[in-house]
TrEMBL record:
<dbReference type="InterPro" id="IPR002347">
    <property type="entry name" value="SDR_fam"/>
</dbReference>
<dbReference type="GO" id="GO:0019290">
    <property type="term" value="P:siderophore biosynthetic process"/>
</dbReference>
<dbReference type="Pfam" id="PF13561">
    <property type="entry name" value="adh_short_C2"/>
</dbReference>
<dbReference type="GO" id="GO:0016628">
    <property type="term" value="F:oxidoreductase activity, acting on the CH-CH group of donors, NAD or NADP as acceptor"/>
</dbReference>
<comment type="function">
    <text>NAD(H)-dependent dehydrogenase/reductase with a preference for cyclic substrates. Catalyzes stereoselective conversion of 4-oxo-L-proline to cis-4-hydroxy-L-proline, likely a detoxification mechanism for ketoprolines. Mediates the formation of 2,5-dihydroxybenzoate (2,5-DHBA), a siderophore that chelates free cytoplasmic iron and associates with LCN2, thereby regulating iron transport and homeostasis while protecting cells against free radical-induced oxidative stress.</text>
</comment>
<comment type="pathway">
    <text>Siderophore biosynthesis.</text>
</comment>
<dbReference type="InterPro" id="IPR036291">
    <property type="entry name" value="NAD(P)-bd_dom_sf"/>
</dbReference>
<keyword id="KW-0520">NAD</keyword>
<keyword id="KW-0443">Lipid metabolism</keyword>
<keyword id="KW-0560">Oxidoreductase</keyword>
<dbReference type="InterPro" id="IPR051122">
    <property type="entry name" value="SDR_DHRS6-like"/>
</dbReference>
<dbReference type="GO" id="GO:0051287">
    <property type="term" value="F:NAD binding"/>
</dbReference>
<dbReference type="GO" id="GO:0003858">
    <property type="term" value="F:3-hydroxybutyrate dehydrogenase activity"/>
</dbReference>
<protein>
    <recommendedName>
        <fullName>Dehydrogenase/reductase SDR family member 6</fullName>
        <ecNumber>1.1.1.104</ecNumber>
        <ecNumber>1.1.1.30</ecNumber>
    </recommendedName>
</protein>
<comment type="pathway">
    <text>Amino-acid metabolism.</text>
</comment>
<comment type="subunit">
    <text>Homotetramer.</text>
</comment>
<dbReference type="InterPro" id="IPR020904">
    <property type="entry name" value="Sc_DH/Rdtase_CS"/>
</dbReference>
Length: 245
């Protein structure tokens, strides 16, 4: 018996990083996973695994989301992972940077939740997991202005949905990782003038001396998706190796 047997999970940003690790972990525990991303080539790699079907989806496009939601008969868990990390202070953040980050990091979760929540309400049960960050209302982080603002908004959105629908069988929690060893992290490191120095800077802030793995974060998502966390809603689950201490 898997911990997620019989559950249908819709997952965004599943092509790589935390999203990919979550797709594999969900499927391993018996869930039927509908994995979405805009990266069709990377996404198709998941089809080799039992229990995973894929769908190309741009979570910034309302029409695409609404059409996708109409095609899904049942959803037990919605896991919103899509996001982007902008580097810089408020002075380095142009209006276009702000709009892009808020659109992908917050508005996409708003659109996905609004599209799938009515199905959950009709079922009288549902579970939403949003990917936030320690860089949010939890901890001030240098050079993460719009990213932190957007991830703080995700925490607020999570608590609002949890409070509004708790008596209708809906749970909503968010995951707040620290620095995670993902392709996205390595892209950001390589984009710096001195990648080796950037890597050292990232590691310095981790009291454990290492980054989290995407698989470690995925296991927390499995717990939140399972009935083991049935009495938990409206919480920000920190998994950061002590960075926020």
């Amino acid at each position: 018996m898997g911990r997620l047997d019989g559950k249908v999970i819709v997952l965004t940003a599943a092509a790589q990083g935390i999203g990919r690790a979550a797709a594999l972990a969900f499927a391993k525990e018996g869930a039927k996973v509908i994995a979405t991303d805009i990266n069709e080539a990377k996404l198709q790699e998941l089809e080799a695994y039992p229990g995973i079907q894929t769908r190309v989806l741009d979570v910034t496009k309302k029409k695409q989301i609404d059409q996708f939601a109409r095609e899904v008969e049942r959803v037990d868990v919605l896991c919103n992972v899509a996001g982007f990390v902008h580097h810089g202070t408020i002075l380095d953040c142009e209006e276009t940077d702000w709009d892009f980050s808020m659109n992908l990091n917050v508005r996409s979760m708003f659109l996905m939740t609004k599209a799938f929540l009515p199905k959950m309400l009709a079922q009288k049960s549902g579970n939403i997991i949003n990917m936030s960050s320690v860089a949010s209302s939890i901890k001030g982080v240098v050079n993460r202005c719009v990213y932190s603002a957007s991830k703080a908004a995700v925490i607020g959105l999570t608590k609002s949905v949890a409070a509004d629908f708790i008596q209708q069988g809906i749970r909503c929690n968010c995951v707040c990782p620290g620095t995670v060893d993902t392709p996205s992290l390595h892209e950001r490191i390589q984009a710096r003038e001195d990648p080796q120095e950037a890597l050292k800077d990232f590691l310095k802030r981790q009291k454990t001396g290492r980054f989290a793995t995407a698989e470690e974060v995925a296991l927390l998502c499995v717990y939140l998706a399972s009935d083991e966390s049935a009495y938990m809603t409206g919480h920000s689950m920190v998994i950061d190796g002590g960075w926020s201490l």
